[in-house]
Amino acid sequence: MKILNFGSLNIDIFFRVENIVKPGETISAKSIEKRPGGKGLNQSVALSKSFENVYHAGSVGDDGIFLVDYLKSENINTKYIKKSDKLTGNAIIQVDDKGENSIVLYKGANFDNDKKFIDEVLNDFSKDDILLLQNEISSMKYLIDKAYEKGMKIVLNPSPITDEIKEFDFNKIDLLLVNEIEAKNIANKNSVDESIDYFTTTYPNINLIVTLGSKGSIFVNKNEKIKQEGIKVQSVDSTGAGDTFTGFFVSYFYQGKNVRDCLKFASLASALSVTKSGASISIPSLCDVKEFERKNV
Ligand code: RIB
Predict the structure, then answer these.
(1) Which intervals hold domain Carbohydrate kinase PfkB (predicted)?
(2) Active site residues
(3) Which residue, of 110, 188, 218, 282, has the fewest CB within 10 Å?
């Protein structure tokens, strides 16, 4: 079994600020850092900490070659990353003293994935393989439809939410990972409980995870509903915490581990990532997660 993550690759520019800038305001940053990021790249890095066959597909410009080198250094196969004439995707990220962030995205090369390229990549994968998707690249609906035709299992983390999501057929999704806001938005409901009811009745075969920030997460499918409590840590930077959760959960889940263990493992990894600055560079190693687990039992 291989996992193909068709996802974004961004150059993250992190500004450390006291408070996130308000409209009309000019503020000074305490520091600035350029780092590898993008929900796609981050999730590949998290996956590769406990899964061997991770392939990342996507597009970068000349300015993004260091992102490909970084993925290689994390044991991720990069043969499906193509060079685009566009600038690499960029994210301007402010992180405040409470560890909260705000992000402005520039799509760039992430929107250079056309049908021909997608067909070429999917050609090398089959029904035993997993396709992981976020929502920061072009041709998402096409990717979902084509991978489904091949019988691949599709995992979707539809972040950030866009209008295009309404066009996706969630019957084709094996595992959907959403936060509270995304759950309510897609389901068009006012509460998490109503949203869960909506997903499980409308898409009876779906495996659903709703992450609840510091309150933990919930897994639901037609057989079971499991709640994982939040793990308390001192927050330094929450950027990439959701990506860390997704990567670790997907890796364990498709290795057939017990769902309760998958949820706990992903929550521990995500909590650890919040204690460090950065997105991909804050993703903990498998050893660190196991060590943290020993301290948390
Ligand atoms: O989830 C965090 C990521 O969102 C950042 O790395 C940034 O690139 C944006 O895609």
Answers:
(1) 3-285
(2) 243
(3) 188
